[in-house]
Specification:
The complex is a heterodimer of chains A (241) and B (633).
Chain A (H helix, E strand, L loop, with lengths): L1 H12 L2 H19 L4 H4 L12 H13 L4 H6 L1 H7 L4 H21 L2 H10 L4 H28 L3 H17 L3 H10 L2 H8 L3 H9 L2 E3 H26 L1
Helix pairs in contact in A: 1-7, 2-4, 2-7, 4-9, 4-10, 7-9, 7-14, 9-10, 9-13, 9-14, 13-14
Chain B lengths: L7 H25 L6 E3 L10 H8 L5 E7 L8 H20 L4 E6 L6 H8 L5 E3 L2 E3 L1 E7 L2 E5 L10 H12 L6 E6 L20 H9 L1 E4 L14 E5 L6 H12 L3 E5 L29 H7 L1 E3 L3 E5 L4 E2 L5 E2 L2 E4 L18 E4 L4 E3 L6 E7 L4 E5 H4 L6 H4 L8 E8 L13 H11 L2 H7 L10 E6 L7 H4 E4 L2 E4 L3 H13 L18 H38 L10 H68 L1
Parallel strand pairs in B: 2-3, 8-9, 8-10, 10-11, 11-22
Antiparallel strand pairs in B: 2-6, 4-5, 6-7, 12-18, 13-20, 14-15, 16-17, 19-21, 21-22, 23-24
Helix pairs in contact in B: 2-5, 11-12, 15-16
The chains are: A mainly alpha (241), B alpha/beta (633).
Pfam families (chain B): ABC_transp_aux, DUF7088
InterPro entries (chain B): ABC_transp_unknown, DUF7088
Keywords (chain B): Coiled coil, Membrane, Transmembrane, Transmembrane helix
Amino acid sequence: MFTIYQRELKSYFTQPTAYAVICIFLFMSLFLTFTLGSFIQIGDANLEWSFFFWHPWIFMLLAPALGMRLWSDEQRSGTIELLGTFPTTIWSAIVGKYLAAATVWLVALLLTCPMVMAVNTLGDPDNLTIFSGYIGSYLVCCSFLAITCLISAFTRDQVSCLIISCSICVLLVIIGFRNIETEIARNFSSATTDAIVSTSVLNHLQPLLRGSIRIQDLTYFGSIIAACLVCTSAILNAKRA
Amino acid sequence: MSTKVTHPNRRAILGIIAVILIVIFANWLMSSTSLGNRNLDLTEDKRHTLTEGTKAILSELDTPVIIRYYATRKSEMMPRQLKNYMRKVDDLLNRYRNLSKGQIIIEHLDPQPDTDAEDSANLDGISGQRINDENLYFGLSISSLNQKSAIPYLDPNDETMLEYHLSSAIANVTSFKKTRVGLMTTLPMAGSPAQMPGQQPQQPWIMYQLLEQRYELQNLGMTPADLNPEDTPVILLVHPAGITPETEYTLDQYLLKGGIIIACIDPYAITAPQGNPMMGAMGGGGVPKSSHLPTLLQAWGIGMDSTHVIADGKYASDFGENRRMYAHLNLSQEAITDKDEITTRNFESLYLPLAGGLTLNENKGLNVETLVKSSNEVILVTAQSAGNPDPGLFTRSQPTGKSYGLLMRLQGSFPSAFPDGKPGNEQSADTKAEAEGDKTLAENASSGLKKAEKPGTVYLISDADFLFDVACFQSSPQGHIAVNNNAALIENILDQCTGSKHLIGARSRAATMRPFTVVKEMETQFAKELREDVEKAQQEMQDIVTQLQQLQSQKSQGKQLVLSPEQELKIIELQEKEIQLRRELRDKQKSLRSRKDALYAKITRLTVAVTPAFVALLGLAVWLIRRKTTRAL
């Protein structure tokens, strides 16, 4: 697993793709913070609304862009068959490849450190709450990456994988919005509405952005990631058989 | 024996369905049980954790408390914001119940129209909110035996105060009688009978009447023999002018037993009754204007100059017609040191006329907090000179440059201010005891407490007049309207002190905004510079006006309506000065704006551009190297 992880990570950083994705992420997140996030105008050293608020929106587009080649590429080029001959299990390959992609996103998030330095220069922020925000943001990203990983196991076509993954991620984000919730509430019973709304990423991200790491939120993100990886394994095993 | 071989695709589908079911079950389990709500609170002020005060109140509960939780759940019209907040309230109530060891019973009620639950909500004082043409309920009724309290509407915008309100309500319903507040004052707060036949009796102060409605107010006089926190949990001490060492000793002993004292001491109490020289011989002496607690304050490490009051350049009151009174402090939100402090929360203004300045001279192991303070543009002036407007005060004298406490809270195990026992007794009793060899007498002489039995609390306010009618209220046909937060201040302090002791010092759980301090400092400095410039220019303009008046007075009777050339020159000079002042102010404002813009531009540039550019360059380099290597191959 570690060998696959290393090989994948190396391939990300020896090709311009990872740099492009990181660069776009950095620019978009910081640009949105200073424009729509009104960081300067509001003058608040908390990063919850001005900075972290935009992350799910960026991740729902960029995480599938980075993850779409995870298995689609292997299936298209036929290297998945070759992988079957290696003395390793499919599960190790899935985890190794997934962790490598997740590491790229970790680097991307760490590179937003100038934002933390800026708030510490301008004011007196609660740095542990910011750290908790980073954990939340990273968990959202990893969840979207896991969903992309699962979709890429279904299809050989990277574009299809990108479109489907993006759609699912968009759905998970927007059902947390009040207008969408109202619409759901008009068509479904209260219990069903609550169940649908509880799948929203935003509802589970918000406590983390406010410095509270709850077991139910960790379960939510952890279960999405684990389930997607297990399902990816089931699909790839079925395909190999 | 045959083995059933499942098709790989079917196996995968079954596996995926099983995983999805497990995920749904795990998430349902976590969101519906208290385990899922357990959290790691990373916030600096532990915003998501119950306070120690709440935990202490719940652990001390010895009678059942019933919380009727009215929430309209089966309505599609309930806004999502309220539904989300409902989950938080559910979670908080569960935590309360878990900590109360079965003493808290929660009854969930969903008041639908024309149901018993709706009637019960109305009886409990829970008001329905008209939202989207429907009457929706979302409130709490807290009761224990025959005591009842209600939070009529749980406002999501007041989320930060929810825990405090709930804990306070629980503490109130479990205490069974009106709390007794002991009043010690030399001011005529309770009114006075007519001095002469035909005269009107003096009405009690409005503040006194309000306190009398809410508490069992007991006038203790200025020389109570003994005070016990069990009988009188709180003492309101207002302007203790001429306090005797014996009374200070009584207060000291009371504090060492865990009492709470709210002391309003004043270097110059305007409301202190004047002595009647005509009745001097008949006991018509007034009350000294200055009050102090000389021994107690020294023992607590607190200082206050009882002969001088604070003149504050920033919080001066404007009485119109250029009558700027520096010693009449009109304090804005900026004077509140902690925005989350419950006693001063959401305060807009406080008015303290001729207040003294409190300082912490020495830390005596107490937890001392300054809740309201002056600015650092302060000059200490004598009360006699402070009573009149003095526009030139800040040009003649240099401010001290330090801010003074106006409201302080002291908590902890107080040291005794009378380590040698009751004043006046020690020597005589010791001598007697020595002479008579009576051990019991010697012990009695020093029988008072030397150190605190329980932690006590003192609120120190450096003014007493702020409680007087005109300082807090305005009369109107509808009754007395509070003109500032003076009344709210004393009510909040008393609420905290008479509620559970565990709530003293509680803070709202505000998701406080953390403003850019660097910019704030820049703006404060600018405002200070600006004020100095304006004052200087105004002084210069005033000088020109004076010169103009002098020129006018020198003219002969017939020529008074015609301007002399010197006067014309002075008028032009005055106009030029005014234009110059405006220009300077404009330039200064521009300069501050450009300084702020430069700082923001630098931060924006460094944050938005540097890292993406660095990553882009790195990516470009990798691409070029890769291209070169591929070509070489």
